[in-house]
Write a structure and sequence with these properties.
The protein has 29 helices and 22 strands. With 765 residues, the chain is α/β, with parallel strands linked by helices. An eight-stranded mixed barrel has the order 13-14-16-17-18-19-20-21. Strand 13 and strand 14 form a beta hairpin. Helix 1 packs antiparallel against helix 2 and helix 1 runs antiparallel to helix 7. The radius of gyration is 53 Å and the shape is elongated. The protein starts with a helix and ends in a 5-residue tail after the last helix.
Length: 765
């Protein structure tokens, strides 16, 4: 505190030195002027020179007096906010005084007096204007005393000029002495008032500093968080009560306390380095306090030669964040990883796989798990899930992770194991799961599982691996359950998945129409009008080698990306365009069947576009038959009925596709006025030798006829099946027995081979 007071008084003394020096210079110049005016210069110099030099010396003394006065003004009020022009003018007359003195010395005698008088006026004007401005803005005593002194000085300069002009006399001398003395008195008072005001200001600043220090100490020691002050070497200088409570024996008064003793060596070094470089560092540190690990948010700030540290205890927040992190990545029932946690684990491992660091996955899907839930209840199902998760964890090698990605699906992540090693682990897992029953409330429940095993390949992505492992497990289920299927990276399932993913990325932006082709397969009337051509429009795709293939990859990708409506819009649009371009061909057709997906049927925009297109081509609309899958039609019977009514109003016919394969209920047929029932192919294949299929097809045909609907049998591949369909009086047949699907343009000129049908009717072709 004593040092701060001394610094304030030192600053005060320095602030008063300039006005004192300026006042002393002016007073010296004034005394010289009085001396020259009060006696003859003959006493100071030879008589031959006194007559020539005396006026010049007097005028030079007057000029020096004015220059000193300007300097004194700047020393007192130079920091006041006056107009820039005035302050510049005062500085110019002050620094230009020597130039004026040289002009006085060298100018001819007749002009000396006028030159000095004009110079005095030039010196006085900016000082007077600036003084008046300060007086208007501040009524302080210093400026009033200065203006009074300046008025006396101006009067004394007038008397001095009179004396220099040769009008010296006792009265002039007395007036000069009196006005100069009054000017000295007033300016002395101005300097005193300015010094007192400066001192008062500095003492107020000192008191403010003292008060700030007092408040700082109060805040420092009463703030409810630990505060620690250190020097740049990391030695603790002081700490508050909260720090003493928090850090216990780490901070002891009377000894050297290094920061590393509180936060640890590495943390202390890192903190000091950051603060030295940037002046501030914020971080979170875990501090072990007598076995209790607490987490603190540390804020370190350079403050002069010290560093101030604040410690905010965020242990509860950190624990909550850790809990939320655990919940986000772990299964609530088994506490093993969930799908998100598994994806994160696989993602981190995929970055480092190579020949010496393989990675494999084991996908486990419990068989007939739904039946256990249905028969014994979900509590039994949960018990089995818990036991399977325990057995999986117990039989995995060190470093492996296990997680639950579905109700009855588990995934084991095995870093360091190739496909062969993972197969061996999968066999042990399958044995551990199925060897012993699971006890639940006295019930001994058998557990069965299907397993898929894959190995990661360079370039694989996490979602790709999961889908690939899922496919391996699905193959085990399709092969009869309770099996292990291992797929290497070159397997066709992975190739198909990657192709579907490529299609999916394309479908996010546009349809790959350059690879989409429209084919058609003939539909032949079996009972009459055999020559009338009808056909079903089918989509095909062309691969990168120009080979035509079914659109399964494109359709799978479109279903995932929600792009089925775009595909159906393309197929319907191309079909209508083809028929519009060939009107003679269109008139000769019976009907053209076009499939619609369930997504399109529930897409209002697609429905509106389809209606607008077919209304625009009404002649073609009467030839169009839209196929709706039975399960889709029955999902929302009211919406389907509205769609059917709208389409039939413009001449379009409706077919129920895959009839008999979904949730067939003959009761729905009375609410769906379809024109055509397309019997699912699974009942047609081998119809000639299957009594059960024959009965189903006969029943569908009879119900359809009673309701005024015609029946179409698909997948007709041999003559025996065709003969059976003719005998059953089925209306239409479609299949390889007549032709495979061909580009739609083919049927502009090519005729269908009807010889299988004619042979079944006993007619020679």
């Amino acid at each position: 505190m004593q040092s701060s007071r001394l610094s304030v008084f030192a600053a005060s003394a320095l602030a008063r030195q300039a006005p004192k020096a300026a006042f002393a210079c002016w007073l010296a110049a004034a005394l010289v002027l009085l001396a020259l005016s009060g006696f003859s210069t003959a006493d100071l110099m030879p008589a031959a020179l006194s007559g020539t030099l005396q006026p010049r010396i007097q005028l030079a003394a007057i000029t020096a007096n004015l220059v000193a006065a300007s300097w004194f003004y700047l020393a007192l009020f130079g920091r006041r906010p006056v107009r820039a022009g005035l302050k510049t003018g005062i500085k110019l007359v002050t620094h230009g005084g020597i130039v004026v003195l040289s002009l006085i010395v060298g100018a001819p005698d007749p002009t000396l007096l006028w030159l000095t008088a004009i110079g005095a006026a030039v010196f006085a004007l900016p000082i007077a204007a600036a003084s008046l401005q300060i007086l208007q803005e501040s009524r302080k005593k210093a400026i009033r005393w200065f203006i009074a002194g300046a008025t006396c000085l101006a009067t004394s300069i007038v008397f001095a000029l009179v004396a220099a002009a040769g009008g010296a006399g006792v009265a002039v001398d007395l007036a000069l002495v009196a006005t100069t003395a009054l000017a000295a008195l007033c300016w002395g008072m101005a300097a005193t008032e300015a010094a007192l005001a400066e001192r008062a200001k500095l003492e107020a600043a000192h008191d403010k500093v003292v008060e700030s220090g007092r408040k700082y100490r109060h805040v420092y020691y009463s703030v409810p968080i630990p505060l620690v002050s250190i020097d740049v070497q990391g030695h603790v200088l002081r700490w508050n009560d909260m720090a003493a409570q928090a850090f216990g024996g780490a901070l002891v008064a009377g000894r050297l306390n290094p920061l590393s003793q509180v936060v640890g060596e590495a943390a202390a070094e890192a903190l000091l380095t950051e603060v030295r470089q940037s002046g501030r560092h914020q971080c979170e540190l875990q501090i072990n306090l007598a076995g209790d690990i607490r987490t603190y948010a540390v804020d370190a700030l350079a403050a002069g030669s010290d560093i101030e540290l604040s410690f905010g205890d965020v242990s509860e927040r950190s624990r909550l964040a850790a809990t939320m992190e655990h919940i986000a990545h772990h299964d609530f029932l088994t506490d093993s990883l969930n799908r998100r946690g598994l994806e994160r684990e696989i993602e981190s491992l995929l970055a480092g796989i190579d020949a010496s660091h393989p990675l494999s996955l084991i996908y486990v899907d419990l068989d007939r798990f739904k039946a256990i839930n249905d028969v014994f209840g979900h509590a039994a199902g949960d018990g089995i899930v818990l036991e399977v998760a325990r057995r999986l964890s117990a039989n995995l090698p060190p470093g492996a992770s296990v997680g639950r990605i579905g109700g009855d699906e588990f995934l084991a992540v095995l870093p360091g194991l190739d496909l062969a090693g993972a197969q061996d682990e999968a066999q042990r897992i399958l044995t551990s799961i199925t060897r012993e029953t699971v006890d639940f409330d006295g019930l001994q429940l058998n557990v069965e599982a299907s397993i898929g095993v894959i190995e990661a390949a360079p370039g694989m992505q996490t979602r790709e691996m999961l889908a690939y492992a899922d496919e391996a497990c699905a193959q085990s289920k399709r092969a009869g359950r309770g099996r292990i299927t291992a797929l290497d990276p070159g397997n066709e399932a992975l190739v198909n998945y990657r192709a579907e993913k490529l299609y999916g990325s394309q479908l996010r932006f546009r349809l790959p129409t350059e690879r989409m082709r429209i084919f058609a397969q003939p539909i032949v009337p079996l009972q009459r009008d055999h020559e009338i051509l009808s056909y079903e429009v089918l989509l095909r795709t062309e691969d990168e080698h120009g080979r035509i293939e079914p659109p399964s990859r494109l359709i799978a990708a479109a279903e995932r990306q929600g792009a089925m409506a775009a595909i159906d819009r393309f197929v319907l649009g191309r079909t209508v365009s083809h028929l519009a371009e060939h009107p003679n061909h269109t008139r000769s057709l019976g009907f053209v069947s076009v499939n619609l997906s369930g997504m399109s049927l529930n897409d209002e925009r697609f429905v509106n576009d389809a209606i607008a297109l077919l209304r625009e081509h009404r002649a073609i609309a009467s030839k169009i038959c839209l196929e709706i899958t039975e399960s889709v039609a029955l999902y929302d019977i009211s919406s389907t009925r509205r769609f059917v009514d709208e389409m039939q109003s413009i001449g379009v016919t409706i077919a129920l596709d895959d009839f008999g394969a979904g949730y067939t209920s003959f009761a729905y047929l009375k609410d769906l006025p379809a024109t055509l029932l397309k019997i699912d192919g699974q009942f047609i294949t081998g119809l000639g030798s299957g009594a059960k299929s024959l009965g189903i097809v006969r029943a569908i045909q009879q119900v359809g006829r009673e309701l005024g609907m015609r029946c179409l049998a698909e997948w007709v591949e041999d003559k025996a099946t065709l003969q059976t369909l003719v005998d059953l009086d089925i209306d239409y047949a479609q299949g390889y027995v007549f032709s495979r699907a061909k580009p739609i343009e083919t049927w502009l000129t090519e005729r269908v081979d009807l010889s299988p049908l004619l042979a079944s009717q006993g007619v020679m072709s």
